[in-house]
From TrEMBL:
NCBIfam families the record matches: SP
Location(s) in or outside the cell: Membrane
Entry superkingdom: Bacteria
Key words of the record: Membrane, Transmembrane, Transmembrane helix, Transport
Source organism: Dyella koreensis
Residue ranges of domain Major facilitator superfamily (MFS) profile in the record: 21-464
Protein name: Sugar porter family MFS transporter
InterPro entries in the cross-refs: MFS_dom, MFS_sugar_transport-like, MFS_trans_sf, Myo-inositol_Transporter, Sugar/inositol_transpt, Sugar_transporter_CS
Length: 473
């Protein structure tokens, strides 16, 4: 791969090395997707094992997201103090411990504890990976490399759902015993130890962010990293790039919440935009598909095996469309893709709401008459297409690059924390909303998709091709 960036008169290339470095960092996204989606196949088994109602199973599924909000909140200060690489290693350890603990629980409350621990690791990874990738990438390919985070997330979701389906099939059901007398749903959690260890091993070999090194006064090390990742051979060009980074970081290095203050409702406009991007990404309801889809399709008449198959197929669609987004992000831009995605999601979610308004029965007896079951299935996958093309990868790309250098870490932490809290609100409320009516739930998500369209058109600015040093407040 050799893409040249001549911004500011400096010739930079996206070398194979920087692609590999970004891919290693993006594996945190794989664990992000795996850890959050793996519970999909275990929901019904956990509900039965521990006798949980709608409200309690909603909290058991979503409690990890509270941990993610905590992890995202503290990731920025940790990364600024100890470095991006060391913080990624901490995330890997937390995720490995959570996988072991969640698979060996004896009740609901220790499951919640270990899910929260894993959530903290996910939250840390969700902030650090896009920050790190943005800081080591040439501007002209930063969108594509930043999209590796979302590609890793959707691959993690796919792998989690595929492993859930395989384990449940091998045992004859998610609640049935598998190896060593442990139920299949327990192995769904335990298997996550493997990618956590791989991630932790790989990030041991990536260099520290040059921007962090400059901020710490380690200029010679920063110059070496820039030489590696940007393929800059001219010493004058390297010195010029270092000077640009120093200029952008000349204000206080360790930003605090005080640095985010601004004239609009107490925060800088760019911070509000980051927060709202995060909130809308979740309020369109995407994680309902990936956390509850097996239960959802089972509830409207599909067998457990078919429900697992549908869920895996949907995750494959998500992976494929994310590849399309990666190909388009630096050509079309972030804002046009978000606009297309919002419009498409509003239509497809509205269609899903209409389909479920035709349902008969309630609870486990709910069913969709022909042809509405198939229409709902097609609409759900079309919705995933529009999300995967736009709000899935674009939000992470924007959050990694849209903030000025001096506040990037703390602003991204705030925005990511807002995202996890929004995710928690949507995920924990869905079982109760579903009891009111699935048509109501999907109609609500369609409304948020429509509002997000207006927000993108009015407030979001394009960042395609801009250097990080040129981002404004």
């Amino acid at each position: 791969m050799s893409v040249v960036d001549v911004s500011n008169g400096l010739e930079q290339r996206a070398t194979a090395r920087v692609v590999l470095i970004a891919a290693a960092a993006a594996l945190g996204g794989f664990l992000f997707g795996f850890d959050t989606a793996v519970i999909n196949g275990a929901v019904d088994a956990i509900r039965g094992s521990f006798g949980l109602g709608a409200g309690r199973i909603g909290f058991a599924v979503s409690c990890a997201l509270l941990g993610s909000a905590i992890g995202a909140w503290y990731a920025g200060p940790l990364a600024d103090r100890f470095g991006r690489v060391r913080t990624m290693q901490v995330a890997a350890v937390l995720l490995a411990l959570s996988a072991l603990g969640s698979g060996l629980v004896s009740g609901m409350w220790d499951l919640i504890l270990w899910r929260v621990v894993g959530g903290i690791g996910v939250g840390v990874a969700s902030v650090i990976a896009p920050t790190y990738i943005a800081e080591v990438s040439p501007a002209q390919v930063r969108g594509r490399l930043g999209s590796l985070q979302q590609l890793a997330i959707v691959l993690g979701i796919f792998t989690a759902l595929l492993s859930d389906a395989w384990l449940a099939s091998s045992a004859g059901g998610a609640s049935q015993p598998l190896w060593f007398g442990l139920s299949a749903w327990r192995w769904m959690f335990l298997i996550a130890v493997i990618p956590a260890l791989i991630y932790g091993s790989l990030v041991l070999g990536v260099p520290e962010s040059p921007r962090h090194l400059v901020a710490k006064g380690r200029l010679s090390e920063a110059k070496d990293v820039l030489r590696q990742v940007l393929d800059l051979r001219d010493e004058g060009a390297l010195d010029h790039k270092l000077a640009d980074i120093e200029q952008s970081l000349r204000s206080e290095y360790r930003p605090t919440l005080r640095d985010l203050r601004g004239p609009r409702a107490g925060l800088l406009p760019v911070v509000w935009i980051g927060i709202l991007l995060s909130v809308f990404q979740q309020f369109v309801g995407i994680n309902v598909i990936f956390y509850y889809s097996s239960t959802l399709w089972h509830s409207v008449g599909f067998s457990e095996a078919d429900s697992f198959t549908i869920t895996v197929a949907t995750s494959v669609v998500n992976v494929l469309v994310t590849l399309v987004a990666i190909a388009l992000v630096d050509r079309i831009g972030r804002k046009p893709l978000l606009t297309i995605g919002s419009a498409g999601m509003a239509v497809t979610l509205g269609l899903m709401a209409w389909c479920f308004s035709q349902a008969s029965g309630t609870g486990a007896a709910l069913s969709l008459p022909a042809p509405w079951g198939m229409v709902a299935l097609i609409a759900a996958n079309a919705y995933v297409v529009f999300f995967g093309l736009s709000w899935g990868p674009m939000v992470w790309v924007l959050l990694g690059e849209m903030f000025p250098n001096r506040i990037r870490a703390i602003a991204l932490a705030v925005a990511a924390s807002a995202q996890w809290l929004a995710n928690f609100a949507i995920t924990s409320s869905f079982p109760s909303l579903a009891e009111i009516g699935l048509s109501f739930a999907y109609g609500l998500y369609a409304l948020f998709a429509l509002i997000s369209l207006v927000f993108v058109i009015v407030a979001v600015r394009e960042t395609k091709g801009m250097e990080l040093e040129d981002m404004k407040e």
